[in-house]
Amino acid sequence: MPAFTYPLAWIAAITLPTLAAIYFLRHRFRRQQVSSLLLWQIHQESREGGRRVEKPKWPLVFFLELIVLTLLILAATGPRWQVPHTTRPLIVVLDDSQSMLAGPEGERPRDMALEKIREITQERSFRSYQLIAAGSTPRLLGDKVKHWKELETQFELWTCQSPDAKLDGALGLARAIGHQEADLLVLTDEAPERPPSKGRLMWVSLGTPRINFAFINAARTVNGDEDRVLLEIANPSATIGTNTLQITAGTNVLYQQTLTLETNRTRRLTLPLPADTPGLKAILGPDALTGDNQVNLLPPKRPQVRVRISVENEELNELISESLQSTGLRAPVNTPPELVIHQSDSVPGGKDVWGLRWLPAPKEPERFTGPFVIDANHPLTRGLSLPGIVWGAHPGATNAPGYRPVITAGNTPLLTHRPETDGRQQISLRYIPNHSTLHTTHHWPALFWNLLDWRTQSQPGLRETNHRLGSDVPYRQAGEEIALKSPNGKTQQIDAPGDEIRLPVSLPGIYEVSSGSGTNLLSETFAVNFLAGKESDLSRAATGQWGQWGTENEIRMEYASILPYLVLLALTFMVWHVFCIARQGGRV
Asked: What are the contacts of 581-585 at 24+ separation with CB within 8 A?
């Protein structure tokens, strides 16, 4: 609703300088001495209008006439003002994704969104203000405030670092806290999938299509005794583009190339590296969006488990040793042990020590050929199948108290598992190699690899060193307090009473996390990279506005005309003007 309904009426403002000109232009007369004014009474009043400019005289009636004209001009424009009791709360949903930072300084969608909010709040009054950042998960940027200037500190929390924007979820939160009374404003860089239907929702898009190269995939994995690096670069732009790629390790340049990609094309690069190569940094040349032009790849973790074998049978001992060695996850030392493979009836002692009990062979074993029932959700059976094998075990065996069957042959348990209250795991295996064929297949080392990998996941620290922004970063602490240092240099203390937490990461870059104290102090670094192909696609950016806050009649009901008050005030000054003229005998 405009403040002035009929703005063309401002043309009447030309009467204001005209009035002033009348008091500027006067006739000048020569002073003449006479003996008497008796015969001059009829010429006592002189004409005030003229063509000669004299020193202005500003009588009171001039100001009254000026005020009256000004009030009548304002009344003719049809001014309206918003009635205070009809104002509504304003809830602003802000796109918190990286694409809001695309473009040069001052032309970014985020910069233009801030200007749009200022423009709207200057044109229209609101009862209160609330900001919601729409990232991977919607979040409130602060409490509800009454005045616009109170939002300045909240805008600093709008960082636009998320790999995507869940606008639908943020709108759901806005409707929930607005109770169907608030005006909703969405500020983003893309057009809505469907124009807003009836409702108090305005969708404003402030994006511009631009050429942009981006890393959409990056990984560094263990490949035997070496590492393997995978990089995938895409050009999601609407036109062909050229950029440069440089890969460095410290101060050493390992790879450099100029890339030319057509629209919606990708380039995949695979590099083998020695395992002792330090952290890598891959950089693309400058373009519209800087957040997807760099990735950091730290050396992958090579977790190992300290295993102690307490089996007297030499053949069985040798089979277990070969099976463990084939996994690549067994540590060269076994002290202090993390996993004990034994044949005793007692549970191995020690903190965080898991046990695999290999039950001794009976005098008359039974050979099972299936069908085998496998708990597919158990960590020990990932990727495991038992087609056409023979499994020699104990006939008529039953589950021990507290043990959960993992692999069974009919009603006979072959592999069982029992969790301890302190977090340790106890596994029981009934397997007789001389009467079985499983250990001659590739499923046998897979079973042991699952066992050791499961044990590594319970070790303190990180599971992986390279992560994608927006994904979980699991961490098992070595103590109750965790210190997390972000790429911006800020350190936060995290209380973690449980066994495992998800580290709060919201920025791409290198992080440092530490927990424990003294000899148990554990400090590690990990990288978080922005890898979001959909968000790097700036060809979908658009500019436009959809929806409105109610119908035209509803908006008009929120405003009241002040024309009657202006006319009444003008009449008051006109009466005063007439009174002044009459008091001066009709002279100005």
From this structure: 581/61
| ∠ CA 380-383-384, rounded to 5° | 65
Ordered domains of the chain (ranges, CATH): 7-79+562-583 (no CATH), 84-208+541-561 (3.40.50.410), 307-456 (3.40.50.880), 461-529 (2.60.40.1930)
| Token pair belonging to 46 | 């002189």
Cα–Cα distance, 534 to 253 (Å, whole number): 30
What radius of gyration, in Å, describes the C-alpha atoms of the chain? 41
**Overall average pLDDT of the 449-477 stretch:** 93
Q: Which two tokens stand for residue 319?
A: 């089979």
Q: DSSP label at 347?
A: P
Please state, in angstroms and rounded to a whole number, the distance separating the CA atoms of residues 220 and 498: 30
> Helix, strand, or coil here: 201?
strand
Distance between CA atoms of residues 235 and 265, nearest Å: 6
The helix (H) or strand (E) run that includes residue 288 is none
492 pLDDT above the threshold of 70: yes
pLDDT at 40: 60
Compute the distance between CA of residue 305 and CA of residue 333 in angstroms, rounded to an integer. 9
Measured distance between the N- and C-terminal CA atoms of the chain, rounded to whole angstroms:
43
CA distance 95 to 164: 9
Provide the pLDDT for residue 89: 87
Q: Which helix (H) or strand (E) segment is 380 a member of?
A: none
Q: Supply the pLDDT for residue 85.
A: 45
CA distances from 81 to 2, 87, 125, 314 (A): 9, 11, 10, 95
Using alpha carbons, select from 185, 176, 182, 220 the residue that is nearest to residue 206. Answer: 185
Cα–Cα distances in Å, from 313 out to 32, 112, 343, 360, 428?
145, 76, 10, 10, 17
Strands 265-274 and 252-261, by their bridges, are: unpaired
328: alpha, beta or left? (left if phi > 0; alpha if psi -120 to 50): left
Q: Which two tokens stand for residue 450?
A: 């699952």
Q: In what order do the strands lie in the sheet with 474-476?
A: 461-462, 474-476, 501-502
Please identify which residue in the block is written with the tokens 């790097």: 536
pTM of the model: 0.74
Angle ∠(584,585,588) on CA atoms, nearest 5: 55
